[in-house]
């Protein structure tokens, strides 16, 4: 390896470790975002659900998550063996003690770090649909089961060389009969999921939708207002999510290069446009833009650009973002129309914006989208993007439903009505977020 190569590898290693740290920050940031949106009597539980997912998923990722996601012993392209790299064996150092090189030119253990953080945040996102009414222990069980049977298989299928990956044996070749030499990619019609539209946001949003129906509504849903108790906390959480998301998207270039820079500027452009789009809808519909709308619009834009961050221009990112903000703002109203209690708008923000971002890149991908010069291959790409979105929804939806029904019949999901009315913080955790009485001076 030349001196230039060594410098480049060192720079890429540094960037990826920083990106992993940024993505890890997103889960505590999510706890602030969700905690502020909750009512005062449930803020600690809401934040604990994010931290609980961080604990459970980190442990099982070390044990079998990396192996199931990125192992070479694939089962029908659906999932890899949990035993190949069990406990990260043969994933960090070789028999001589040297660090194993990863696929991107730096030590493989850095990729393990990076991908672990994605599994954590994907699972934690779901908790926003369950605010104020579920047992903490059941949530922890669900987190481990969902990551194992939904997230890890999807990560393998899309990113780990499985059924939906960017390979000639993937979905596009199966659909359109493309024939290429072994090892070639079908760039014009291969699915695009740059940083996790299907694996992260569509899967988590679908799980939230299914759980909202199976777990059921809060006691006073649609009868009383459930207002956020701390909007500054919401905005702080959104700000930290935006900061961490640069690791999420720009880090998915897997190098400190121009693609990372493109993903960074596209992420900023789409997020800013989505925030403005959300606020415009609020102004036209309700007569006033809100801080909650600004924070939610930021997250919707981040979600929408995630699958497309490396495949758009800044101009098309603005378009993708503003449409994503408008659609997500309208999408949060679905829970009132269809009467499912998606407490903190996971469906409206993550599923709706995630679907738009995944499908929208098929329209707007630079030089190969249907609307950006791709011609018939662009139409094929658009179709492929729709199909992978539907496949992600199907897999996550079915797995979530099975797990949720089993847990409902065994551990049980719901608090007693009296405990829910008193507040989940005091009844489940024996704590309150704010001391409104004063010190105990007895």
TrEMBL record:
GO terms for molecular function: ammonium channel activity. The keyword 4Fe-4S does not apply. Belongs to the ammonia transporter channel (TC 1.A.11.2) family. InterPro entries: Ammonium/urea_transptr (IPR029020), Ammonium_transpt (IPR001905), Ammonium_transpt_CS (IPR018047), NH4_transpt_AmtB-like_dom (IPR024041). It is found in: Cell membrane; Membrane. The chain crosses the membrane at residues 15-34, 46-66, 109-131, 138-159, 194-216, 228-248, 260-280, 292-309, 315-334, 346-366, 386-407. This is Ammonium transporter. GO terms for cellular component: plasma membrane. It is a multi-pass membrane protein. Keywords: Ammonia transport, Membrane, Transmembrane, Transmembrane helix, Transport. It holds the Pfam family Ammonium_transp. NCBIfam families: amt. Its main location: membrane. The keyword Transmembrane applies. It comes from Corynebacterium uropygiale. Signal peptide: none annotated.
